[in-house]
């Protein structure tokens, strides 16, 4: 028998049998060690009684560790663990989904859901709500002021103006939505406005805050080129709020906040229906050098429904001023 085994490891057969034996030896490592120890004992211990005792001890130890080895490698525990992990994740997901549609979301849930719906955003925590469309956030350890893009709420904090109709309500609604929450900030084209505020679209989970304020009647839609990515979304939301007399549309005699009086609706009508406006009221951005005279600039300014406070193309050199466009022109 021993001679037959030796022949398996000689000649060309060894190219197959030696690697195979090595693999089997690793797979059944405790048994391999036990066999090697038994062979050493058999060859080197001449006392028969001692040799038999040692061989019996090695056999028992090999059987013990060998059984544990086989049980460990074939145990379904690892598979069960994976199954439990999957089941747990599914339970978490199923718990998160209905939570998204309600208030009181946890920050970790907010980040996860917003990332799924819009990956081109950065996270920040709201530290203060200034008014209906302006917040302060902690962004990477630095406090930044953020102005919501594409919307405008009635004025409530500007010292140059009296509190406008529904201004306090808009501020309160903004606080209800975002105060203390982790939000996702999305940039359009511009980084900041002329006051150094970050211009951003704001999300909490799948809730688009800019749109929600317009849809519930706390804000109106405004267009400030070149940041017009969602202007159609905001206009549609405003139309829904108007038709339902929500918020300021039902409480303020149907008037818009002063800064955005009729600009989105008028601009859209003039540019799409072939009206009297010389240029598009939405894009590209125009400046005074595009006009030959003050009268021409003023005609365009009035045609698009721009005002001293709603001057997206910055034609009023005074800024928030007298509503006179390009008065430096002849």
UniProtKB/TrEMBL annotation:
Annotated InterPro entries: SNase_OB-fold_sf, Staphylococal_nuclease_OB-fold
Domain of life: Bacteria
Keyword Hydrolase part of the UniProt annotation: yes
Ranges annotated as spanning the membrane: 20-41, 53-72
Pfam family, one: SNase
Ranges for domain TNase-like: 120-251
Keywords of the record: Endonuclease, Hydrolase, Membrane, Nuclease, Transmembrane, Transmembrane helix
Keyword Nucleotide-binding: no
SUPFAM superfamilies per the UniProt record, alphabetical: Staphylococcal nuclease
UniProt biased composition (Low complexity): 260-273
Entry GO MF terms: endonuclease activity; hydrolase activity
Chain intervals for the UniProt region annotation (Disordered): 245-280
PANTHER family named among the record's database cross-references: EBNA2 BINDING PROTEIN P100, SERINE_THREONINE-PROTEIN KINASE 31
Protein name: TNase-like domain-containing protein
Organism (species): Candidatus Roizmanbacteria bacterium RIFCSPHIGHO2_02_FULL_43_11
């Amino acid at each position: 028998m021993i001679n037959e085994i030796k022949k398996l490891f000689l000649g060309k057969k060894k190219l197959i049998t030696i690697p195979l034996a090595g693999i089997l030896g690793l797979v059944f490592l405790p048994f391999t060690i036990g066999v090697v120890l038994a062979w050493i004992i058999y060859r080197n211990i001449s006392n028969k009684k001692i040799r038999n005792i040692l061989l019996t001890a090695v056999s028992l130890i090999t059987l013990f560790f060998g059984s544990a080895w086989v049980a460990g490698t074939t145990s379904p525990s690892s598979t069960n663990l994976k199954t439990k992990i999957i089941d747990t994740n599914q339970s978490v997901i199923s718990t998160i989904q209905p939570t998204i549609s309600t208030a009181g979301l946890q920050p970790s849930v907010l980040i996860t859901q917003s990332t799924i719906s819009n990956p081109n955003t950065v996270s920040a925590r709201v530290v203060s709500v200034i008014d209906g469309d302006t917040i302060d956030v902690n962004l990477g350890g630095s406090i930044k002021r953020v102005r919501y893009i594409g919307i405008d709420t009635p004025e409530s904090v500007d010292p140059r103006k009296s509190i406008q109709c529904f201004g306090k309500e808009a501020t309160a609604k903004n606080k209800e939505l975002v105060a203390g929450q982790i939000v996702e900030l999305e940039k359009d084209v511009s980084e900041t406005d002329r006051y150094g505020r970050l211009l951003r679209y704001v999300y909490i989970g799948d809730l688009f805050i800019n749109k929600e304020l317009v849809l519930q009647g706390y804000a109106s839609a405004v267009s400030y080129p070149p940041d017009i990515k969602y202007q159609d979304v905001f206009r549609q939301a405003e139309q829904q709020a108007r038709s339902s007399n929500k918020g300021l549309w039902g409480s303020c005699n149907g008037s818009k906040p002063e800064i955005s009086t009729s600009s989105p609706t008028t601009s859209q009508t003039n540019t799409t229906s072939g009206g009297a406006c010389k240029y598009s009221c939405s894009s590209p951005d125009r400046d005074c050098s595009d006009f030959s005279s003050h009268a021409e600039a003023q005609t365009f300014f009035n045609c698009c429904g721009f005002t001293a406070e709603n001057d997206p193309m910055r034609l009023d050199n005074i800024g928030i001023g007298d509503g006179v466009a390009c008065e430096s022109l002849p």
